Amino acid sequence: MADKKVGKQTLQFACAPAITSWASIVGPMEGQGPLKEYFDMVLEDNLAPGEQSWEKTEQKLMQHSMELALEKVKILPGDLDFYFAGDLLNQIITANFTARFLSIPFIGLYGACSTLAEGLCMGSIFLDGGFAEKVGVSASSHHDTAERQLRFPTEQGSQRPLTAQWTVTGAGSYVLQKTGTGIVITHATIGKIQDLGESNANNMGTAMAPAACDTIITHLQDLGRKIHDYDLIITGDLGEVGLAVLKELLGSKGYATDRVSDCGVLIYEPQQDVHSGGSGCGCSAVVLNYLLDEMLYKKKYYRIFFVGTGALLSPTSSFQGESIPGIAHGVVLEYR
Amino acid sequence: MADKKVGKQTLQFACAPAITSWASIVGPMEGQGPLKEYFDMVLEDNLAPGEQSWEKTEQKLMQHSMELALEKVKILPGDLDFYFAGDLLNQIITANFTARFLSIPFIGLYGACSTLAEGLCMGSIFLDGGFAEKVGVSASSHHDTAERQLRFPTEQGSQRPLTAQWTVTGAGSYVLQKTGTGIVITHATIGKIQDLGESNANNMGTAMAPAACDTIITHLQDLGRKIHDYDLIITGDLGEVGLAVLKELLGSKGYATDRVSDCGVLIYEPQQDVHSGGSGCGCSAVVLNYLLDEMLYKKKYYRIFFVGTGALLSPTSSFQGESIPGIAHGVVLEYR
Q: Treating both helix axes as pointing N-terminal to C-terminal, what angle do A115-128 and A281-298 enclose, rounded to 10 degrees?
């Protein structure tokens, strides 16, 4: 028997790895949203100073967010044992070029918008398993790199349906250490793909909601817990439309939904005209900065279940008539 | 101190997870190569029976290779704790749709041609760390899906320079269990990105050779071993050109090179006109099937260092003038 596995999909971390530092950098739109005070830096433009392309801007965002997170705890990149990162771009070039710069042994991940949660799971496993003392985790997205790669040329100004989410420009980075106090990761639940047949790439929240629901219920069953054992269950990123679907799914199975929220819903103001809310690996990666600040400095939450959700499609799979597989990975964060 | 880490980048597995099963399916060209007898199935055409696209063919290859590997040890997909997979396609759709079909908790990886090695590292860490009892690992590529995505439309019939490698059509899958005899994984070395400035996407072997060299030397230093402590050190996939560069790099630092070989060199006959040899995540994923057969059934090797090598570029990064970051992850395979 795997002694650190509980139930079907949940892992229990005896050492409870600590998240000892975090940092975030966002684009101008996110810098006008309700969480602006929680981000370390806000770009004035969609291009970073001195950069000629959105892709190189995104890479700098990820790199600087990790550098900032390391600075806060006075750790050099070379002191990290391993680095886990991923992004939305083809062949995860943002993560690759960041890992080249940082020069840390690197594990490339792809989980679409669940990437940050996937990285936190992997990092915790390395730490709790005795394979590392300190690891770094990053995820990012950029509105313009994602839109032109995955949907339409940015200059085309295509109309977006109301179910569509707005890809966040932002990067979030985290330092995890084997021992520490403050915020710790006690459990991870690794998700299974769920696909109920949604095939509209402009309605990814609906495509991902069943995966979020499955991971949340499996997690609660694995640990014998209830929704109200958490101060907050937060998905990233279903948006308004997907969150409503998730609440309906949970409610129909008899689960409370009053403490369920979503990073994509929190990041923008309604008047910012983003339709269903934020998305992209960068969304939950920067909103988790806000949540951790609320836990650590304001004692607002003592235990959160943070559930990253990914829509695992590509333009090619959509063109070939496939529906959209969703996945959700979760970690339990506790303030101690 | 991380008690399972030795030296800078190497992990030591006290439980020595066993590779209890493996399977491979290849395309017609690979089925005419020197290793044809070692593959479980050979496609007659670049399309699988009943499939309308190369992408859906690649997905079926990965899926069937995992199903075959599971059948050999009479394990159902649902008996696996976790599934690690990745491929070359944008947003790793091959792995995503395979994970949807298998319905196993899934970790998506991207490491280009190092993906299989990356998956074997992750799987071993889950098993040795006490997080799982049984895991599955797959990687795949398809010549026609990769070429049209990463280089030129297949129908264009572009000429290829002699330094270019031929993307393998094939998928390989592996079942790893916490305890077992036969072939076991004793160590993993996680690579750092190396980039000496090579920017020719038709010379990826040269771009990846420095990463292979760095991982091999770091591994030997971490464990205080010599090249001749291994019966074979095999990279995947540098091709003829990259292997020559690797041998030159190793030789210049005083290391023996007589037991160093490459999966991309082994998979085709010289008369198959593939120029520098094979590449793609599927190349090392199917050639490792051959190596394990040689270890287990013919006792040809007792200890191998299998080093997956990845070129972490994308068409976008090349268009924007970037050089090609290389990475290499290695696992030590022992016959016991």
A: 60
pLDDT at A91: 95
Touching B: A residues 56-95, CB under 8 Å: 56, 81-82, 86, 88-93
Q: Which of residues 295-324 of A touch B (CB under 8 A)?
A: 312-317, 320, 322
Instruction: Give the model's pLDDT for residue A1.
Output: 65
Region at A254 (left for phi over 0; alpha for psi -120 to 50; beta for the rest):
left
Residue A147 in tokens: 């839109």
pLDDT in tens, A29-56: 999 999 999 999 999 999 999 999 999 9
> What are the phi and psi torsion angles at A109 (to 5°)?
-120, 150
Helix (H/G/I), strand (E/B), else coil: B332: strand
What CATH superfamily classification does A188-335 receive? Stage V sporulation protein AD (3.40.47.40)
CB atoms within 10 A of CB B117: 33
The reply to whether omega before B128 is within 30° of 0 (cis) is: no
Residues in chain B closer than 8 A to A191 (CB atoms): 105-106
User: What CA–CA distance (Å, rounded) separates A76 from A83?
Assistant: 13
The C-alpha atoms of residue A279 and residue A263 are separated, in whole angstroms, by 8
Neighbours of A74 (CB within 10 A): 8
Bridge-partner residues for B109, per DSSP? A109
* Contact of A304 with A233, CB cutoff 8 Å: yes
- Per-residue burial over A7-43, b if 16 or more Cβ lie within 10 Å, else e, is eebbbbbebbbbbbbbbbbbbebbbebebeebbbbbb
What is B15-177's CATH topology?
Answer: Peroxisomal Thiolase; Chain A, domain 1 (3.40.47)
- CATH fold of B185-335 reads Peroxisomal Thiolase; Chain A, domain 1 (3.40.47)
